[in-house]
């Protein structure tokens, strides 16, 4: 009951700490986004308002005026007239042909003896292209055959003549006014009127408005207008008392930092809305891609620290300034998270920070692209940073990507003078260098502060010259050999399932360093065949065997091993039972109860893929070394049974290994163990004294060496058994 209460209180404490970390970031973000200098210190003036007093420039300043630049560019664009295509002859021919079709139809209607005059008028009014009036329709029907023939001949001719000219959508009316002058003078007044009205109705624009060309020329005109520079001298009057503030004056006051709006609670409300949306999306994305970050307080604390520094820097660097926002080292945050945690975390946080930058600098798409693309590329290039040179390459990649991002919006840089262009390139170089430098410094500072097993630390720890590995080699050479084989198993299996293979290998190097305290109590280090466990009671022997975990943790803390490496030490046996000594204790107890808890490892069970792989590798290697299966089938059965028993015992419940990954691990173990412990033929000791053994008499499963004599107090190899947890049931092999 007490243990259950402690577990529940621990869970609630973890939840409270996680909520505290997340809420601290949210509160900081709201505060920074809604931060306003107390009103009354500076001038409150908007466009169209009356200035309360004279305002002078406190210092000399030169800035790029967006108001004047946009106004000049708009004037240049409006000076470009609308562009039209050249007259299209197809339109003229289509309309002439259409006029003939209509005239033929009218001729048929006129000559229809069965149609009444009212029906004939209805037929003519139904012609959509003409839109005739009843009076004109009646006049067409009343025209004599001779006049109608003249009309039929003159309408296409007149229409062809007028449509050979350029007719735009806005000049159709002018063209229609000119039609009566083009009608043949030989026609009567009534016939001329009919011809003019029919031609007017059939006129269509033959020169269409070319919007793309117009926009292109206007955009070119806008781009040719240089950025308007405004220089204010010190003590120059910007706006006089009583003047109505213009956009230019308000912009000048803003640039020089003299404008301050009233405290607006809607600013705080918008900041809260933005923060809630951003935190929700970011948290949900991390939970989907890498839930470990939200559950592991150390990783979450790293994210909080990095984001806090990034938010504070963004508040003071993402300001209205020519070059300061482009110096903001967002790439440093991305690279830090990629190298300390994971690239997925870096990508998610980078996108979230890019949205924050967009909130601080709205409508600045080039800046967002510049910061976001460079940061993402830097994180991807750096990766796990197995060498210091990776930071240099990542910084260079950030510089190159930044240049491409700027070129994609500013090329061909006609708006920039030569000094301005040189300044821009210098800022890009400084951004890449600053990002790489901050990432490298943060890498060492945060790595040491949080005890993270960074790739550079792992590289140092993997060297055989490390004091702990030297002790392991000199004091427990058998354990050292076991460690090398287990590290190969763990590395190969981790790489096969996509886990951290380097971490698994280095963690395996140190998982048994506790055996250096009492090396001769472990089978692989006993050389003379006698076991010290023969003189001890089972409980003492079990406690000695179990104590190598605690001894290893003490050594790990003494030599400042990272916390992730310490996890391999404390979790490589999980909560398994030292079954051999437990059974021995039950036999000696003669019916008295024996506390099973005294014979179990303290745990905890593996909580990551890497430590789970180590547990399985350690179990399988020890069992295969003890059992010595004669062929691949026996080896496969043994490996499958050991891993299945670990699953059934619940040792893998707290890691996120899938059954598919377990099958992959089994195949890898089988392949590696077959190569390490493959059967060999036992050769005779003296070829001259003894006849060579025939294949029938050669011992199956020999290993090429003299068979070991059974150790004192230990069962012979043929009597060796495995416990439920995969341990070998003999004192010297536990």
UniProtKB/TrEMBL annotation:
The chain crosses the membrane at residues 12-35, 263-287, 299-318, 330-360, 367-385, 391-409, 421-446. Residues 479-623 form the HD domain. It holds the Pfam family HD. The keyword Membrane applies. PROSITE patterns: HD. Residues 689-734 are annotated as: Disordered. Gene3D superfamilies: Hypothetical protein af1432. The keyword Glycoprotein does not apply. Residues 713-723 have a biased composition (Polar residues). Residues 690-700 have a biased composition (Low complexity). Keywords: Membrane, Transmembrane, Transmembrane helix. InterPro entries: HD/PDEase_dom, HD_domain, HDIG_dom, Metal-dep_PHydrolase_7TM_extra, Metal-dep_PHydrolase_7TM_intra, PgpH_phosphodiesterase. This is HDIG domain-containing protein.
